[in-house]
Amino acid sequence: MSAAPSPVTLASPSPGLRAALIGAGIGASRTPRMHVEEGRALGLDYGYDLIDADQLMTRDIAALLDQAQADGLAGVNVTFPFKRAALDHVDSIAPSALAVGATNTVVFGPDGRVAHNTDYAGFAEGFRRDIGTQAQGCALLLGAGGAGGAVANALLDSGVRLLFVQDVDTAAAEALVTSITARLGAGRVRLAGDLRVAAAAADGIVNATPVGMAKLPGTPLDMALVEPRHWVADIVYFPLETAFLQQARAKGCHGIDGSGMAVFQAVLAFELFTGRKPDPARMRATFDSFT
């Protein structure tokens, strides 16, 4: 499998463009409306569908990608639980996805299936806008899956000097630590080990697990480990105010919800699918219009 050509070839804007989101339990996603309304604002005939593996009763990402491409889609966004697995079913991998080890955006075009990752830049932009003057020396990341890899790299490239990584899948956490160490050198990332020790050392705690989603309620760690001095961030956005954020804010923590990552990853994916630059403020307004 080769790296993607540079510059990345974008889908050509044309009438009847269609894209979709592939995931499991995604009925509450705000992504379709952001894409469709932005397409309408730019005068595009642009549709965006949901391909929900839970509704289709399948976890065969290869078959889902095959069908989406056969249906003539310009590309698909990919979410939980397929962000890593989808990399095995593309023709080339853009640097953004190669660095993270996962994809959330697959473009179908003249270069075949090209895997991108807009989660990295999406989280980084939302984090930059919302972190303010909070200390960023050390952070604890919960979750080393497809989204966790993007968030880990974004945190370390956005000011965090030391990152502790924890995942119930120890092998996934170890693989992420190894990957980041290869890219940034020793001393920037460690396995969390004892969460009490890692949380005590951290300035902030980030949830990059699916815990907190409507279908997976709860908190990703014992909230007794969260102190008022911590800033906390969550990538879950349905619900926007997760139990993790609610309980942390109640303690006085500075909180960052999943809206920034959700909006800015969609901004970048929209451009990859359509070849047109969207208006981030307009897409944010669409996101915020949900009740």
From TrEMBL:
Residues 21-106 form the Shikimate dehydrogenase substrate binding N-terminal domain. Its EC number is 1.1.1.25. Pathway: Metabolic intermediate biosynthesis; chorismate biosynthesis; chorismate from D-erythrose 4-phosphate and phosphoenolpyruvate: step 4/7. GO terms for molecular function: shikimate 3-dehydrogenase (NADP+) activity. InterPro entries: Aminoacid_DH-like_N_sf, NAD(P)-bd_dom_sf, SDH_C, Shikimate_DH-bd_N, Shikimate_DH_fam. Keywords: Amino-acid biosynthesis, Aromatic amino acid biosynthesis, Oxidoreductase. The keyword Transmembrane helix does not apply. Gene3D superfamilies: Leucine Dehydrogenase, chain A, domain 1, NAD(P)-binding Rossmann-like Domain. The keyword Oxidoreductase applies. Residues 258-285 form the SDH C-terminal domain. Pfam families: SDH_C (PF18317), Shikimate_dh_N (PF08501). SUPFAM superfamilies: Aminoacid dehydrogenase-like, N-terminal domain (SSF53223), NAD(P)-binding Rossmann-fold domains (SSF51735). This is Shikimate dehydrogenase. The lineage of its organism: Bacteria, Pseudomonadati, Pseudomonadota, Alphaproteobacteria, Rhodobacterales.
